[in-house]
């Protein structure tokens, strides 16, 4: 008898310009597959969690404070809470990390600083044996683009901190993670985001850093950043494999 086919990992799109960066190729390299759900599309039904092996919720230019204006946010919250309650492995990226905290009734607030571009992080000792993030080291520069932050949910373990925004990555139990920084990003996606933003606003005025500075940081840090991001997805795919 043939072995049952492995279930895909659900990638949840919460932003029109989301490409998932290095994620799809990394999952496939680890022997997994990806199912995409465009949560922004009201005509796209929310997938059933029994049909997927794990969930990755990506970033958004919306914040949880927009939930009453953007119905997709409450749908993603329901999916997130259901994943936690049923033990389906969950990985939240930026908005996805905030969504996880919010779905577990932790407070979401404005961060003390707006982070954009590559900023250093400091993994804590507890992260040394984490199943997804153990390969990050003190001083690694990771890509940020966010104005909100989150309180830790009850029972969560803080894994990674930062100088500007303290809560950078956390774990709830052994199957659920929230990561504030965009470990998925690649150069094409950085350019897509910068170009889209610059079409209507000045990055330096709104975010305090010019786009040329962000591109210069990418020249310096992105190669290592992409390698470590791929490893996160590979490890997640291995974790959810049957």
Q: Compute the gyration radius: what is it?
A: 17 Å
Averaged pLDDT, please?
96
Determine the N-to-C terminus distance: 16 Å
CATH superfamily: Class I glutamine amidotransferase (GATase) domain
SS class: alpha/beta
Number of domains: 1
Oligomer: single chain
CATH class: Alpha Beta
* Proper CATH architecture: 3-Layer(aba) Sandwich
Strand content: 15-25%
Number of strands: 9
Biggest sheet record: 9 strands, mixed
Specify the number of helices. 6
**CATH T-level topology:** Rossmann fold
N-to-C order of helices and strands: EHEEHEHEEEEEHHH
- Which overall shape is indicated by the principal axes computed on the Cα atoms? globular
3D architecture notes:
- It is a single chain.
- The protein is of the alpha/beta class and 242 residues long.
- It is built from six helices and nine strands; from the N terminus they run E-H-E-E-H-E-H-E-E-E-E-E-H-H-H.
- 33% of the residues lie in helices and 24% in strands.
- The mean pLDDT is 96.
Considering the chains and any ligands shown, give keywords for the structure.
9-stranded mixed β-sheet, 242 residues
């Amino acid at each position: 008898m043939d072995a049952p086919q492995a279930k895909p990992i659900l990638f949840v799109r919460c932003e029109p310009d989301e490409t998932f960066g290095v994620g799809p190729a990394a999952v496939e390299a680890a022997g997994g597959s990806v199912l995409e759900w465009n949560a922004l599309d009201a005509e796209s039904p929310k997938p059933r969690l029994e049909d997927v092996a794990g969930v990755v919720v990506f970033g958004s230019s919306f914040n949880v404070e927009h939930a009453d204006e953007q119905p997709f946010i409450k749908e993603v919250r329901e999916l997130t809470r259901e994943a936690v309650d049923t033990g389906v492995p969950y990985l939240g990226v930026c908005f996805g990390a905030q969504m996880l905290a919010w779905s577990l009734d932790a407070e979401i607030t404005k961060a003390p600083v707006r982070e954009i571009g590559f900023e250093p992080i400091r993994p804590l000792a507890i992260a040394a044996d984490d199943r997804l993030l153990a390969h990050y080291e003190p001083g690694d520069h990771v890509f940020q683009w966010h104005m909100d932050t989150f309180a830790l949910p009850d029972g969560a373990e803080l894994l990674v901190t930062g100088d500007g925004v303290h809560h950078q990555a956390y774990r709830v139990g052994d199957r659920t993670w929230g990561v504030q920084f965009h470990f998925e990003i690649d150069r094409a996606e950085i350019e897509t985001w910068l170009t889209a933003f610059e079409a209507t606003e000045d990055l330096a005025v709104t975010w305090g850093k010019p786009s040329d500075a962000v591109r210069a940081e990418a020249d310096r840090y992105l190669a290592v950043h992409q390698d470590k991001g791929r490893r996160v997805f590979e490890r997640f795919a291995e974790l959810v494999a049957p």
